[in-house]
Design brief:
The chain is of the alpha+beta class. The chain is built from 28 helices and 22 strands. The strands form four sheets. The chain has a ten-stranded mixed β-sheet with strand order 13-14-15-16-22-17-21-18-20-19, sandwiched between helices. Strands 1, 3, 4, 5, 7 and 8 form a six-stranded mixed β-sheet that branches. A hairpin with a 6-residue loop joins β9 and β10. α12 (521-554) packs antiparallel against α13 (563-570) and α21 (765-788) runs antiparallel to α23. The longest helix has 37 residues, at 576-612. The chain binds (1S,3S,4S)-1,3,4-triphospho-MYO-inositol. (1S,3S,4S)-1,3,4-triphospho-MYO-inositol binds next to α25.
Length: 925
Amino acid sequence: MEIKEEGTSEEGQHFLSASQANDTDGTQFTSIQKSANEPQLEFTLACKDLVAPVRDRKLNTLVQISVIHPAEQSLTRYSSTEIVEGTRDPLFLTGVIFPSEYPIYEETKIKLTVYDVKDKSHDTVRTSVLSEHNKESPSEVGRSFLGYASFKVGELLKSKEQLLSLNLRTSDGGKVVGTIEVTVVKMGEIGDGEADHITTDVQGQKCALVYECTAPESVSGKDNLSFLNAVLKNPVCKLYRFPTSDNKWMQIREQMSESILSFHIPKELISLHIKEDLCRNQEIKELGELSPHWDNLRKNVLTHCDQMVNMYQDILTELSKETGSSFKSSSSKGDKTLEFVPVNLHLQRMHVHSPHLKDALYDVITVGAPAAHFQGFKNGGLRKLLHRFEAERRNTGYQFIYYSPENTAKAKEVLSSINQLQPLIATHADLLLNSASQRSPDSLKNSLKMLSEKTELFVHAFKDQLVRSALLALYTARPGGILKKPPSPKSSPEDSHSQDQPPPMRRQDSIPHHSDYDEEEWDRVWANVGKSLNCIIAMVDKLIERDGSSEGSGGDKDGEKDPALADSISSHPREDWYEQLHPLILTLKDCMGEVVSRAKQSMTFVLLQELAYSLPQCLMLTLRRDIVFSQALAGLVCGFIIKLHTSLHDPEFLQQLYTVGLIVQYEGLLSTYSDEIGMLEDMAVGISDLKKVAFKIIEAKSNDVLPVITGRRENYVVEVKLPATMFESLPLQIREGQLVHVYPVLFNVGINEQQTLAERFGDVSLQESINQENFELLKEYYTVFMEKMPPDYISQFQEQNDLKGLLENLHQNVQAKKRKNVEIMWLAATICRKLNGIRFTCCKSAKDRTSMSVTLEQCSILRDEHQLHKDFFIRALDCMRREGCRIENVLKNIKCRKYAFNMLQLMAFPKYYRPPEGTYGKADT
Ligand SMILES: O=P(O)(O)O[C@H]1[C@H](O)[C@@H](O)[C@H](OP(=O)(O)O)[C@@H](OP(=O)(O)O)[C@H]1O
């Protein structure tokens, strides 16, 4: 019989669709699907009275689960249990789960093969697909066959109490070598009080394990899940049962899913960059006539900028070929065409069903640290590169005007406001005229209100010294436009500080004053907008007043009009209002046009300065920042959508969304040594840049549920769609479009051998300053949270959570000069969970160290929140690492079931970050 391996990203996880599977070879099979999103079948295993091949040998056993699909006769390896040591009656904690997508039917046959493991270092070190000729696969090395049993799924489901007790037989089918019990697990389906007592002897200790569940409790709402499944792909599911401290069972479903957002967000973002840069290039072209010096600079900038846009377009074309992709493997980290795509992004979910407690979900997004791998780290990462770039720009005396990053950002913001507000004001002005022509006072008042609001915003956007100083600078750059003193932007504190130093703009020092420049002209142009709005307001007041008075005095008590007044009204024909307002609106539009043209040019001139200095370095830095941001944003959007869907039922969470916003906590495991310093420097900036992102929740109008991004580099809004029924259940503020802000924080603790080197011979200051800065950010969020959430909620919240104590503890740990202080990560993660935040764990590839950390976090939660029996902590940890979702993650990344650690590396790891024997080794990463 042919044997295939399942459970790899290549084969096992790309399941047949239900319709495909139901009709294989035209034969109909009996479906066992219960509900679209629930696993189809879950069972646990235990053996009894196993017979050892050699007398008195203590058995170390595992069960390998294989599937014989009814349409084929070949055997597909599906999963394994963990190894239970030293007993003839092993009770396995790792169960078997067939997720909703898996083609399994009542006719499907399951084969259970029990092995005695002699050498653990060989076990689980399996390749993904067995070679046809190699019958003795690496998985058989170090283990010997004890016996097997098989059953049909239908037999199990129809059995009394959904339990089968099967004889294990030798390969010739003759001798019975023990029994194996298969018990169906119905997570959340056993009513309160029902219990199934199992007595077992685990590792020599007798303990009565009670299998008991509380009433079913939907943890996230089934409707939400189906919607969520539109963005999550290729789930890998694992099942465990662990004993609690009062000797009952808890059940754990572990799920790991890819997301199509891995590719969708980068594509959206690159399209936006292209749009933004094309628009900027056009604005630079439209700067008007410049002196030969500036004109040459402009030409040079445009050549480079056009090349850059072409490059983004090429990347987008390449990415667009990746239709349907939802995963970038760790081995593709350095691929140029996939640079914007996050590495190994997954939702890692733990669903806990434990006695007496409500079901709980714990989500962590695992992803490779956002970093520009293709560009490399020879010169460091963004944090250092940006800092160096600014310092050089500030200190180089050359023919450019130095605008600080704050000023450049401000210029982009002004340009963005112009582009947004000008069309809006024009629309509201037209609506006002429309109301006027309909002679509708109420509608006129409403239109005027909207017009005034937007115009005030518009006027406010230019209330900045930067616009004035840039106008002056631009004037000097025009042919013949020269000044005595160089214009210098004064709005940033850094600049006022640098005023004490000699001014850097030496070229302009020698330029004589140009007497023609009228510095007040801009104020006049700008003020004219306000003035023309005031004229409109006055006119509307007048029109409404006249209308009111004519109506009020013209009608008698019966509502009949005085014929004399009726005459006077008819002398103001209907189009009067329109005609009165029309010229004023035209004036407003003209004044606005004048402001826009000047402000746009002056702000574009600021951007030209930034670009003109150190081409192409400046553009390469922007590219690097875009790449890192894209990876970070893809993860964030994924985390946000998952959080939203799983917490939609929680009114406090929804209130938190629009009153406070969400904390997003990143755990970094990078070392501060060699290339990973650069990665950490990239990551720190990428995560900090997420502050520029806000979310808007909108109603989905079609089946396209994918988020849409709007905005430009300084300011993005991600529109997340919800189906009508869910959208309607949201608070009014969110439905009305109030933005949801995010507060990203990063805590990094290097744990590997490289970090040991950094601690002994290198420098850990980068990690220290990141942790300190981010502690301050976390504290700020906490303060806002306490201020803005309702007092009733806060008093209850404080009773249940000692957040203040946790923060104090974190602060002490951040200050302490302790090596590999992983306490920082546990505290930061706990605070994040308690604050309802979004959790992330990252290392270089999100494969090995991340897997250790995320499994440790899961087991620590089970211990602290779900009373995991203390004697089973390590066993639970080993189960998850040996047979859980994370080893599948390694497999799907590098096609090998081994964490890429060697003994030496592991010796440097903190104790609980070391995987069990047999699961690690030299891997070709
Ligand atoms: O190349 P060796 O010496 O085997 O070291 C590995 C590390 O031990 C792993 O920790 C790295 O993976 P993670 O970044 O997922 O932890 C792993 O990263 P990679 O999978 O990206 O190559 C390697 O750096």
